[in-house]
Amino acid sequence: MTRHLDSLGRIVIPKETCRLLGLHGGVPLEFFLNEDTQEIILRRYGCSFCGTLDEETVQYRGIYVCGTCRRELMQRVRVDTEAVSQL
Q1: Distance of alpha carbon 26 from its chain centroid, rounded?
Q2: Residues 32, 40: Cα–Cα separation, whole Å
Q3: Average pLDDT over every residue of 46-65
Q4: Stated pTM of the model
């Protein structure tokens, strides 16, 4: 699939690609440049679970997790740990 830059340096991401990746208007994206291969890497910026970007968003092992999802995950781990300890 090929796309061309417009006169302002913009590229349109194909609708099908956006649909497959869950991208929509307003979703923050990060751009990285691999200078060796001259490739541009595009990655969604925000929580990998809900898409939110807040002041509590942190990166863990290559994914972003917002404060709300992080608290939910920690609660789930506590519940799972308690269930295992009762076995």
Answers
A1: 13
A2: 6
A3: 84
A4: 0.51
- Whether the Cβ atoms of residue 64 and residue 47 lie closer than 8 Å to each other: yes
Q: Domain segments of the chain: what residues?
A: 15-85
Phi and psi at residue 75, in whole multiples of 5°?
Answer: -65, -45
The phi and psi torsions of 15 (rounded to 5 degrees) equal -55, -40
For the CA atoms of 11, 53, 73, 43, what is the dihedral angle to 10 degrees? 20
Report d(CA 44, CA 29) in Å as an integer.
4
d(CA 59, CA 47): 9
Q: Is the pLDDT of residue 22 over 80?
A: no
Token couple for 48: 């990998």
The two tokens of residue 25 are 């208007």
Please name the helix (run of DSSP H) or strand (run of DSSP E) that holds residue 62, with its range, or none. none
